[in-house]
Amino acid sequence: MASLKDVSKAAGVSPSTVSRVITGSRPVDEETRERVLEAIRTLDYRPNLLARGLRNKSRKSIGLIVPSILHETFANFIYFVEEACVSHGFTMLLGNTQADAEAEERVLKNFIGMSVDGVIVSQVSDESAVVKSLNRLGIPVVGIDRAPDDEEADRVVVFNREAGEIAARYLYSMGHRQVACIGGPETVSLSRERLDGFRSFLTEKGIEVHHVSGPDFEFETGIAMVRKLLGQGCEFSAIWAHSDLLAIGAMQELARLGMRIPEDVSIMGMDGIQLGEMVRPTLTTIRQPFREICQHAVRLLLERIEHGHAKPTRIVVRPELVVRDSVCHR
């Protein structure tokens, strides 16, 4: 097994420089940093940061990385991850990437420099390098929400394909045969999974799904995607949106255009955030069990911190249909 000295020799730098690159504790010029990282990859070096943390009296801290602290979905993750961390005597440190890959990398470097015991992450996209970077450094990591199946890491996710099937089945049962879907970014696997479940069920019933994808899951994007659907000349009696904020944005735009919800167009969301109960009509949605997801994620991470290497665990939680007032019979 390669040592820190092996890496320093291969990269032509001192062991202290290798340590600074790994921890991010002090600046290193980009050329040297890349040379060290290449040596780490070539030698498959895995620093034992957990042992270092024990020697340094670990802070018992866990980093949580989310794409947006303003989106109520991620606010729920923040709340319940911290709740679970505190119950186990750990402190949660928060990193907000603002759905930006470069910001995500900066947040990760900061967490490494703080010597966190582990990281829970909802990635910016499937192209994110967070999990690979943490695995390379030997830092325990658990993916939640946006956590692709092809990564070597523990993860806790909603059964997103089933969420799509539930939404499609409910709209079909309510008599809707002209249906549209407002999806999230196609670079995020859960968007593709939700659309696949939704579309598969309706295709079997002989129903074509009008689909548009937005750059994010935000309120303003829901407005823009309804405009896009209408601009394409799509006819629909119901819309399923991949987030409640997308759905509420769609509701507002349709109302502005003089359409009644749900009499003219029925709307469904996804997430089960509190805002869905505050709008009128109240939003029918597919609820994610946020507390359950976060409790599983913290438990898996603490087990990984305590016991080290083991085969990655994948926990899938079930979504739940919440019927309110924004969908009616056609």
Describe the structure.
One of its GO terms (molecular function) is transcription cis-regulatory region binding. InterPro entries: Cro/C1-type_HTH, HTH_LacI, LacI/GalR-like_sensor, Lambda_DNA-bd_dom_sf, Peripla_BP_I. It holds the Pfam family LacI. Keywords: DNA-binding, Repressor, Transcription, Transcription regulation. Residues 2-56 form the HTH lacI-type domain. The protein is of the alpha/beta class and 330 residues long. Among the domains are: 1-45, 434 Repressor (Amino-terminal Domain); 160-288, Response regulator (Rossmann fold). It contains 13 helices and twelve strands. The strands form two sheets. It has a six-stranded parallel β-sheet, sandwiched between helices. A six-stranded mixed β-sheet has the order 7-6-8-9-10-12, with helices on both faces. The longest helix has 18 residues, at 290-307. The model is unreliable at 53-57 (pLDDT under 50).
Task: Offer a quick outline of the entry.
This protein has 13 helices and 12 strands.
Write the layout of secondary structure elements.
Blueprint: H1 4-11, H2 15-23, H3 30-43, H4 49-55, E1 61-66, H5 72-87, E2 91-96, H6 101-113, E3 118-121, H7 130-137, E4 141-144, E5 154-158, H8 160-173, E6 179-183, H9 189-204, E7 209-213, H10 219-231, E8 238-241, H11 244-256, E9 266-271, H12 275-278, E10 284-287, H13 290-307, E11 314-317, E12 320-322
Parallel strand pairs: 1-2, 1-3, 3-4, 4-5, 5-11, 6-7, 6-8, 8-9, 9-10
Antiparallel strand pairs: 10-12
